[in-house]
Write a structure and sequence with these properties.
Chain B: It comes from Algoriphagus yeomjeoni. The complex is a heterodimer of chains A (225) and B (616). Chain A is 10% helix and 45% strand. With 225 residues, chain A is mainly beta. The longest helix of chain A has 18 residues. In chain B, helix 6 runs antiparallel to helix 7. Chain B is built from 18 helices and 12 strands. The chains are: A mainly beta (225), B alpha+beta (616). At the A-B interface, loops of A face loops of B.
Chain lengths: 225, 616
């Protein structure tokens, strides 16, 4: 009987030891790198998950990028280990001129960085008003004279902040003859049927540069219908 | 002293055992490995090596490799096992989707060429034949690489490391895209006189090599033309990607002359053995007995246990013989409507009256498809079509007239009965949510075996995978001729092909690039062409733009319903409803970075001379 109780005790002990084992002996990353894609200190509006930044870290056997996706408002963040990284911008990925120099990033605890880019086009001073079945959108399109042509500018309407050329409930292509760089442009856009019955509408203006897949957008704005 | 004695005895024993060995013991031939001089001096064994390489040829979608990806574009969606529903919810195609870097296979081929040249004592003409065939396979492997990755290093010799600690002499930079296409074409041209294998449609012969030229030169020509025509061409500074627009003419000319040689001298002809034109088109692909149209196929044989489960996975639900599987790849309404009516009118199905006030009522569920291009029947099983002698009836539910409008009634099971005693949901669906039954209202016919037992896991199918057939050569010739401004000649090729599908003679009198794109889409559906065609014409990012408002990025379904309206002449007739397929989730999204697939970081780490593809 005594032997049996010792056995029970042993089994319990093994169970305890096993349960208390640390399964993962690596610390998870705790530092946060966050930042914005900026031009003239203003964050650029983009398509959610459309633009990817790359983080590289040398000195380890595994040399693979850490992809960092940029949100629709031009911000990004990544939780990584402390260390010295290099950030690179993929050529032709965003609506800006290629920036071929990598950006050194030192991460010690939390870190904020602004990534300066030179976009081909910028959309400023966007506002819109709802008038019955249509909206009137005013914006200024700046050409930064970076040597690329404008393919088109469009008004995107949707039901969430994540409104862009891919996710939207209505698109209005701004006629090319109305586009004058640097002066306010106003267009009247009918509200698409799918949005008419909703309480809010989200509007963004996007400019497509020829040969670049991603557009530059204004920040999303919403108004009640 | 005693211990010492034991050592002596042990030593003596060991010496006795070792010295008494057969002196040749370490030079015995292994009983389980064939040696180089055995392999390369025996034609049967060399053929065995070749057959291994043929079997390892890369493919994106074929009957065995990657077949599920037929459901990843706009020809079809996935209606099979629900665990694979990711194919209906791709979001955006990954940049590594078409990635390939199979230098293992290229090295094996280079090694074989080397051994044949150095070790083999076979007769010279036999050796030359094998060498030609190996070079054919190698060039074809390069073609499979260049269409996915752009220019890659052309390696034609074994790379041997000297263990000096510096591997940099083994690191080759990428050749340009044009150089790789030129290499493929010139290799094919050089081996044509010596490759032999006349009359074979599973081993390469002269016309197989010409067919590869016909296709690859056409690809190179359209890449040169349409890439340069983009508002910002996709290219790299070293031209690893991007072919100069001025070269288009030359490539088109090469392609056209190769196609013409096949058409004039090949002795092939379009398959025309069955007076039923729909069945005829189906047989043109799958018939293995004296098929005059097939130039090169990957064959399967039941008795050699080389067979595949494509039919088990894709047979129509109501014709399946197994208790599981079926219905995986189901063609979309988009593709069905691409098949024109034989009077030349657009293929859009007539679902509602012209003024859109009411449905159009059909007596039989198959009547709506009457008068269509016979290739529709040969490619797709539509509601009411027959397969294996059995009607594949489809009905999604009933429409009950309530006095003012119709109430749609469906069921959560298959083969169910409505209260009036008639069918509610047919045994073959379609159904909104059940797995392994069509979600689009259509089933696949092309490549699905009509032999008895082929859709069981025990027997499976031996239908072959057609890599090249004469139908494609007609289309290649037509496209190249049109691009070269020889419209009359191009029209001749297209109209010949259309005649086989049931159109009258000279059904087209003018020809545009859109007609060619359309004709390739309907003729070559499910033959692994759509992705590569859209890529080389640089239209993939517009066709699959990732937007729910772009109908070409979405997958549509067509559901037949039986009208329940007692006392009315329309009672018992069929009406149709079109909608986005219920199990389809995310529009197809092809980005500029998809035109050339990503070279993996491991490759670049090992060889820093490799430059990345654009947008990666």
């Amino acid at each position: 009987m005594k032997l049996k109780s010792i056995n029970t005790y042993l089994i319990l002990l093994i169970g305890l030891v096993a349960a208390s084992c640390e399964f993962d002996n690596f610390e998870e990353p705790k530092s946060t790198l966050s930042g914005r894609i900026v031009y003239n200190d203003e964050p650029l509006g983009l398509r959610s998950n459309g633009v990817q930044l790359e983080l590289w870290q040398r000195g380890y056997d595994l040399f693979q990028k850490i992809p960092v996706y940029v949100a629709q408002d031009g911000t990004f963040s990544a939780v990584i280990f402390d260390g010295d990284y290099q950030m690179t911008l993929i050529r032709g990925n965003g609506p800006w001129m290629d920036r071929t120099d990598s950006i050194p990033v030192q991460v010690r605890g939390s870190q904020m960085i602004d990534v300066e880019v030179q976009p081909y086009f910028v959309i400023n001073n966007t506002s819109f008003d709802v008038n019955g079945n249509s909206i009137s959108v005013t914006f200024t399109l700046e050409n930064t004279n970076s040597g690329r042509n404008l393919e088109y500018a469009s008004i995107y309407m949707g039901r969430t902040m994540l409104t862009d050329a891919v996710r939207n409930d209505g698109v209005f292509r701004v006629p090319m003859d109305q586009i004058v760089y640097g002066t306010p442009i106003t267009v009247n856009v009918p509200i698409p049927g799918g949005l008419a019955s909703r309480s809010d509408i989200f509007v963004r203006v996007g400019a497509k540069t020829a040969g670049v897949a991603e557009l530059v957008y204004s920040q999303a704005q919403s108004k009640p219908l | 002293m005693k211990k010492f004695n034991i050592y002596i005895i042990a030593l003596a024993l060991i010496s006795a055992v070792t010295t008494s060995c057969d002196p040749d013991y370490l030079e015995l031939e292994p009983p389980n490995i064939l040696l180089d001089n055995q392999v390369w001096n025996d034609t049967k064994l060399v053929t065995g090596v070749l057959s291994n390489y043929y079997d390892r040829l890369p493919s994106h979608t074929s009957l065995t490799g990657g077949w599920a990806d037929f459901a990843a574009y706009d020809e079809a969606m996935w209606s099979g096992y629900s665990g694979n529903d990711g194919l209906n919810n791709i979001g955006s195609y990954g940049f590594n989707r078409w990635q390939i870097w199979d230098y293992g296979l290229i090295r094996d081929i280079n090694l074989s060429i080397n051994k044949l040249n150095t070790i083999s004592t076979l007769p010279d003409n036999q050796k030359t034949q094998f060498l030609s065939e190996l070079r054919f396979i190698r060039a074809y492997v390069y073609f499979e690489h260049v269409k996915r990755m752009g220019g890659i290093p052309i390696i034609t010799e074994e790379l041997i490391y000297d263990f000096s600690g510096d591997p940099s002499y083994l690191q080759n930079p990428r050749n340009t895209e044009a150089e790789v296409y030129d290499f493929i074409i010139s290799e094919m041209e050089e081996i044509i006189p010596t490759i032999g294998n006349n009359g074979s449609n599973t081993r390469a012969n002269r016309f197989t090599a010409l067919a590869v030229i016909s296709r690859s030169a056409l690809y190179a020509g359209s890449l040169a033309k349409y890439n340069s025509a983009m508002s910002a061409p996709i290219q790299l500074p070293g031209n690893e990607v991007g072919i100069d627009g001025s070269r288009a003419q030359g490539y088109y000319t090469k392609s056209l002359s190769a196609s013409k040689t096949i058409l004039e001298e090949g002795g092939y002809s379009l398959y025309n053995s069955n007076p039923d034109l729909g069945e005829n088109f189906y047989e043109a692909v799958i018939n293995k007995n004296g098929n005059p149209e097939v130039i090169w196929a990957q064959d399967f044989l039941l008795s050699a246990d080389k067979r595949h489960g494509f039919t088990y996975d894709n047979v129509a639900r109501s014709a399946r013989e197994d208790n599981l599987g079926s219905s995986a790849i189901t063609p979309s309404l988009n593709l069905v409507e691409d098949y024109e009516y034989l009077d030349g009118s657009s293929g859009e199905l007539k679902i509602r009256t012209p003024d859109d006030s009411d449905y159009i009522y059909y007596d039989e569920v198959s009547d709506i498809f009457e008068g269509k291009d016979a290739r529709l029947y040969g490619t797709i099983i539509y509601p009411g079509a027959t397969f294996r002698g059995q009607e594949i009836f489809m009905q999604a539910g009933v429409m009950v007239w309530n006095g003012n409008s119709y109430d749609r009634i469906e069921s959560d099971g298959l083969a169910t009965e409505y209260i009036d005693g008639g069918t509610l949901v047919a045994a073959g669906g379609p159904h909104r949510s059940i797995q392994e039954v069509s979600n689009t209202g259509f089933y696949l016919r092309k490549y699905v075996d009509n032999a008895v037992g082929a859709s069981t896991r025990g027997i499976r199918s031996e239908v072959w995978w057609v890599r090249f057939r004469l139908g494609e050569i007609y289309l290649n010739a037509a496209e190249a001729a049109l691009e070269l401004g020889q419209t009359g000649e191009a029209l001749g090729y297209i109209n010949t092909l259309r005649e086989r599908a049931g159109f009258g003679a000279n059904s087209l009198s003018s020809l545009t690039m859109e007609d060619i794109m359309h004709e390739r889409r309907v003729e070559l559906a499910f033959e692994d062409h759509v992705v590569w065609d859209y890529k080389r014409w640089r239209v993939a990012h517009e066709k699959w733009s990732g937007s729910t408002t772009n109908p070409e990025s979405m997958i549509y379904s067509l559901y037949p319903y039986r009208v329940v309206r007692p006392g009315d002449p329309r009672d018992g007739k069929f009406i149709f409803m079109k909608s986005v397929a219920p199990r389809f989730r995310a529009p197809r999204f092809f980005q500029l970075g998809n035109y050339y697939s990503e070279i993996s970081q491991g490759v670049i780490d090992a060889n820093p001379k490799i430059v990345r593809n654009p947008f990666h």
